[in-house]
Design brief:
Blueprint (H helix, E strand, L loop, with lengths): L8 H7 L16 H4 L3 H12 L7 H13 L4 E2 L8 H7 L9 H23 L7 H26 L8 H5 L11 H18 L16 H14 L3 H13 L23 E5 L17 H4 L12 E2 L1 H10 L2 H5 L2 E3 L24 E3 L22 E5 H14 L3 H14 L10 H16 L5 H7 L1 E2 L2 E2 L1 H4 L5 H9 L3 H5 L23 H6 L11
Antiparallel strand pairs: 1-3, 2-6, 4-5, 7-8
Length: 527
């Protein structure tokens, strides 16, 4: 493990969440006891732990998540104007670079988040914080630590488990081996179970605290962890707890799910809030990046993680007009919901597919000045009620309750005016639920993990999508008639043909971690 992840994180946790401190000259280095000495400082420190969920700098956490969408069958890498083999090799499963800074940064920033959590959990009991607030902060911290470990285990498999700050300061830290994936999942489950007991409901937070972890968020993530572990009955029961809480509902209009004017909407279970200020005042901005990094290069964007025609075809085949127009913007067509963009320029000569992600698009009237990464006001949703309903449907199906699976599938489809065949059963019902997850959650950074965990006859579905005979590969090489993708060959049409199921179900452990551990931390097979 890298000791360097400690450097500066204590100061960052306080300074990043307390603007007033930035106006004061730093006269001395505070001790840990002083930093955590009162309610305000402890609250600020917990606020700092949330920073690890979604770093402001696009390349540390945010862009890694975009690359994961690029590595699915929903997207191309996209930008053909800037040759980036460091991105393409990951997105195409072609000689993946084990020393990639994207893997290293994602690993390090999740462990920074874990470190902050460990400090809080180790020190908070000794503070004079109000007991009710203390209990809530412990719940938030347990949730966050589980979140960070979940990010690590589903990308890398088993990772080193660090439970206290003292462990990280110990010389023995360098010899800490990888725990098994099951051991990491056991820790995640334990943290989430404890968080559930301590956290308030969403409705019990005031407006200023919306975005913090809630009981429903902890239950939702525990249901998802159970889903990953194929604990079907437990996943259904836990998801049902969220449903029965009546804290969440589907947005009546799908247009409002990813709407910059609808932060922390009724459908949101967990999201990270962003804030932007008028740049003419010189105030600091704490905005997002997705609207720029996924945007068109003709519209101030960077053209990364662009929707594939393969995804568009899935919407068209389903007759799913509502979600299609809210998911994909296509070159030459008007932008749905933005009257200031009647004929969109997706820069198809610089963009592999001539399409961009509508969910992250910022309408002209709501753009900051400048329209740049770190200055977009759209909150980022990590879990929403539709995801939860489809998790419940999937878990209900696999635990033998097909009627409940159909009922929740129908709820999601009713919103977008699609009929549901209520006679579905067996594999057809399973496949309908999986298809619905793809269409409902497209471009929201779920697809690759769904393809890895969902199995047909014991084989991960991603094995059917990629590889020489994979459905995505065969479509692009033999069936694709899309004018944009066949004209712009700056990105190889054979994306995914080099996928190897013996290697690519996990990503490589960052090389530096292996070197610094003197080989105690081992590499994943095939890398």
């Amino acid at each position: 493990m890298k000791i360097k992840i400690l450097l500066g994180f204590l100061a960052f946790s306080i300074l990043s969440c307390n603007d007033d401190v930035l106006d004061e000259r730093l006269r001395s280095q505070p001790t840990l006891d002083e930093i955590l000495s009162n309610e305000e400082s402890m609250l600020n420190f917990v606020n700092g732990a949330y920073a690890g969920v979604q770093q402001d700098s696009w390349w540390q956490i945010v862009f890694y998540r975009q690359i994961m969408d690029m590595a699915s069958d929903d997207c191309w890498a996209g930008n053909t104007e800037q040759p980036r083999p460091d991105i393409i090799t990951i997105a195409h499963y072609n000689n993946v670079d084990v020393a990639s800074p994207y893997f290293a940064d994602f690993w390090n920033y999740n462990y920074r988040g874990i470190t902050r959590c460990n400090v809080i959990l180790q020190e908070i009991e000794a503070t004079t914080v109000d007991e009710e607030l203390k209990s809530r902060l412990i719940g938030e911290t347990k949730f966050l630590r589980a979140f960070f470990y979940f990010q690590l285990v589903k990308n890398f498999g088993g990772v080193p488990i660090i439970m206290t700050f003292d462990e990280l300061l110990s010389p023995e830290i360098i010899t800490t081996e990888r725990s098994s994936a099951d051991e990491v999942y056991d820790l995640i489950e334990q943290d989430l179970e404890e968080a559930i007991e301590l956290l308030p409901l969403k409705s019990e937070y005031g407006p200023a605290d919306l975005g913090r972890a809630t009981k429903g968020a902890a239950q939702g993530y525990l249901a998802k962890v159970y889903l990953f572990r194929e604990k079907w009955a437990e996943a259904a029961d836990m998801a049902n707890n969220v449903i029965l809480s009546n804290e969440y509902a589907l947005e009546p209009n799908f247009d409002n799910v990813w709407n910059v004017e609808n932060p922390n909407g009724v459908e949101v279970i967990f999201e990270i809030r962003y804030r932007t200020d008028d740049q003419n005042t010189g105030s600091t901005r704490f905005g997002g990046s997705y609207g720029v990094t996924t945007g068109s290069r003709a519209d101030g964007g960077w053209n990364w993680s662009v929707p594939a025609s393969y995804l568009e075809q899935a919407f068209l085949e389903e007759g799913d007009e509502i979600r299609l127009r809210n998911t994909i913007i296509k070159h030459g067509e008007p932008v749905y919901g933005d009257p200031d963009a009647p004929e969109f320029d997706a820069a198809p000569d610089r963009n592999k597919s001539g399409r961009i992600n509508r969910k992250f698009y910022i309408p002209q009237a709501f753009r900051g000045a400048p329209h740049a990464w770190g200055n977009t006001p759209l909150n980022h949703i990590f879990m929403r009620y539709a995801d939860l309903l489809l998790m419940y449907a999937e878990a209900s199906y696999f635990s033998g309750n097909e009627s409940e699976a159909i009922a929740k599938l129908q709820m999601v489809r009713d919103r977008v005016n699609l009929t549901t065949d209520t006679s579905l059963s067996g594999d057809a019902l399973r496949d309908a639920i999986w298809k619905e997850r793809r269409l409902e959650l497209a471009l929201e950074q779920h697809r690759i993990y769904d393809l890895r965990r969902q199995k047909v006859n014991g084989e991960p579905r991603i094995n059917q999508v990629f590889g020489p005979q994979g459905s995505f590969v065969q479509y692009n090489l033999n069936e694709n008639t899309d004018e944009f993708e066949l004209t712009n060959l700056g990105e190889d049409q054979a994306k995914g043909s080099t996928f190897d199921p013996g290697i690519h179900l996990l990503w490589p452990i960052p090389t530096n971690e292996i070197i610094l551990s003197q080989g105690v931390i081992t590499q994943n097979p095939g890398y």
